[in-house]
Design a protein that fits this description.
The protein is mostly helical. It is built from 13 helices and no strands. The chain is 57% helix and 0% strand.
Length: 225
């Protein structure tokens, strides 16, 4: 089936390995700056993660730190718990979590999420069948999960096609560079530029991240907050 870029799209439209490069090509046809990135660096990876508690833990750990720091903490938690599940996280003391490089604030977030899953106030399997705005509503109701964390979950886990993570410094900086925009460009203007890529802003963002990671102007963590 061909891909048509239009404002008339389902809120929960997804992408997959079967159509990812086709969408990249369509975006390249639509936007010369994205086409240049693809020409210079090739197609971006289709970043995905499984729909698990561990994945959400990983995303929370990535808030406001470097990818390397978050991964180090994740590995420590994996070693400590063997299976990084809600039940096992709830068994760990503050001291044990601290030894895994988890800050006191993020201890609260990880335990709150774990408790919500154990008590079935949040069910990850159900989120996949919900529209984007409902997924966002359920996740952001939990302490420590904001719009950026939800954006990454929607993009990487549920593979929702039309998300632009305006809170992500890497995506924003890559957009400014690709479009030759000044550093002080207002948020509203950036969102207007990104709106041009509807209904495939997620894939456009992955092209921007690919640009960011493939070019020497990297100066921020990929997932800063």
């Amino acid at each position: 089936m061909g891909i048509k870029i239009s404002d008339n799209y389902a809120m929960s439209e997804t992408f997959s390995a079967d159509n990812f490069r086709e969408i990249c090509d369509k975006l390249g046809d639509l936007d010369e700056d994205l086409a240049v990135i693809i020409k210079e660096h090739g197609y971006p990876p289709m970043w995905t993660r499984p729909n698990t508690y561990e994945t959400l833990v990983h995303i929370i750990l990535e808030q406001q730190v470097s990818l390397a720091s978050a991964l180090a903490a994740l590995k420590k938690l994996q070693e400590k718990t063997i299976a990084l599940t809600p039940e096992n996280i709830l068994k760990l003391s503050d001291e044990e979590l601290k030894a895994c490089y988890v800050s006191r604030q993020k201890m609260i977030y990880l335990r709150g999420l774990a408790l919500a899953l154990v008590e079935k106030r949040l069910e990850l399997d159900v989120l996949g069948s919900l529209p984007d705005n409902e997924v966002r509503s359920q996740l952001t109701a939990l302490k420590g999960i904001g719009n950026w964390t939800t954006d990454i979950y929607l993009m990487f886990v549920l593979q929702r096609a039309d998300i632009f993570p305006i809170g992500d410094l890497a995506a924003v900086n890559a957009l400014k560079r690709a479009k030759k925009l000044v550093r002080e460009t207002p948020r509203e203007n950036l969102l207007e530029v990104a709106a041009f890529w509807k209904p495939y802003r997620t894939v456009a963002t992955m092209i921007l991240w690919h640009h960011y990671l493939s070019s020497p102007f990297r100066s921020y963590a990929l997932y800063p907050k």
